[in-house]
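Hi everyone,

Forwarding the result from last night's run.
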Amino acid sequence: MATVLITGATGLVGGHLLRLLTQEPRITRIIAATRRPLQDPPIDVINPCDPQLTDALAMVNEPVDKVFCCLGTTRREAGSKEAFIHADYTLVVDTALAGLRLGAKQMLVVSAMGANAQSPFFYNRVKGQMEEALIAQNWPSLTIARPSMLIGERHVRRTNESMLAPLFSLLPGNWKAIEARDVAKALLHEAFSEGNEGVTILSSATLREIAARSQM
């Protein structure tokens, strides 16, 4: 039985994951820290919220076992490079630090295909730097998911994704677009899989395979 902390629950992958968490009998308590209140949260979900997510995380004092982070945006949505770094690096690291403070032994995070701290591309470089920061925290178990283009209904449509999704759906292997729900299913499956000590990096193709095998 486990108590879990999740950030990014108002997003595409995080929304799916939150619903799956509420249906998982091995989870006894869910703490979803958000910047804005959850709409119609399940009765068994604790929802500390604050426009500054770090402050919402600081409200949590109950020990947790597992941490899920599904935070992610784009530079266009964020409005600037600095705002993107804050959302996709700083807040992810803050989530991990909160988990460590609360005694968590396992962290599962959504990154992106192509994440590389040395990449010449800003988006991939920040994602890679985020991964390196989490690895440096020496989690007993750290799972990094690297999905390709995500498919699903967002509250706010991303124009580029809407235009490119049909193309990416036809591509092979890791390039093939992936359903956000499948990423969520794979994360939950991995959270309770045996032998996940150390760092595990899951490619987009692997995420799809895990989701297909799961019974959720």
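The beta strands are 2-7, 27-33, 45-46, 66-69, 106-110, 141-146, 150-151, 178-179, 198-203.

Cheers,
N.
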